[in-house]
Amino acid sequence: MISAAGIITSGTNILFVTLDSLRYDVARTAYEMGRTPHLAALLPRGGWERRHTPGSFTLPAHMAFFSGFLPKLPKPQQPPRLWECRPPAFKTVPPETFMFDAPNLLTGLGQHGYRTVCIGDVTYFSRQTPLGSVLPELFDEDYWRPEFCSPEADSTRHQVDHALDVADKHQGRPLFLFLNVSATHVPHGHYLGQSTDTVKSQRAALAYADEHLGRLITTLTAKCPWLVILCADHGDAYGDDGYHGRGIAHPVVMNVPYAATVL
Does 187 sit behind a cis peptide bond, omega within 30 degrees of 0 on the bond before it? Predict the structure, then answer.
């Protein structure tokens, strides 16, 4: 069991990676097929957990994440949450849970000396529209460039290179480093040389991202311990029961891969 309260009180760095739109079945199949060897070597024993996302598309899912609501196990009994906004007095928070007395996690971490940094990808992190400024505004620093986005075939390499530069710049201070990976977001058919997006092309996108995410995690954790959280914000439908896209309560959208470990 991870005690986020102890981890954050001690000033341990945190890496939070969301693999945008990654379905649980795609992540699990890629893991079992050996398509993601770098991540497989770093994931907890057994690989990805199946969890339910709190939001069916990027904006509500991340608003929930940054408010303390990470994906939940699909069963009645839940482990202690990693973090939680201070609740009303009648509710008891487990000692393992980091309780922040602030309206969001990023502000709460700042009260404990953390520098919070966002490496974004989709337009909700771009600041190109008023709505696209809501999530970045929560962070001390936020970065977005067109080459971080899914139409760029080497987007994860660009994102990881920038994330490692940021981590080097902030050595000596607790860091919350957030990375929203774009490769698994549509369009990803180009990873198979096709114009349509499918389950297979998303798996190919994840296989591409695997090497760079492995490089990110191993480089960071070679210098000091990190709490590493990996999950999808939601899944995507590719014709399942006639559905396409996200923003719908279909199981392929709501079931997401999740892993958390200290490395």
Answer: yes
Q: Where are the domains of the chain?
A: 4-84+92-262
Tell me: the pLDDT tens digits for 164-178?
A: 999 999 998 999 999
Task: Compute how many other C-beta atoms are within 10 angstroms of the C-beta atom of residue 22.
Answer: 29
- What is the pTM assigned to this prediction? 0.98
4-84+92-262 maps to CATH 3.40.720.10: yes
| pLDDT tens per residue, range 201-242 | 999 999 999 999 999 999 999 999 999 999 999 999 999 999
DSSP annotation string for 148-197: GSTTSTTHHHHHHHHHHHHHHHTTTS-EEEEEEE-TTSSP-GGGGT-SS-
Q: Which DSSP string do the residues of 208-255 spell out, in sequence order?
A: HHHHHHHHHHHHHHTTS-EEEEEE-S---EEEETTEEESSS--HHHHE
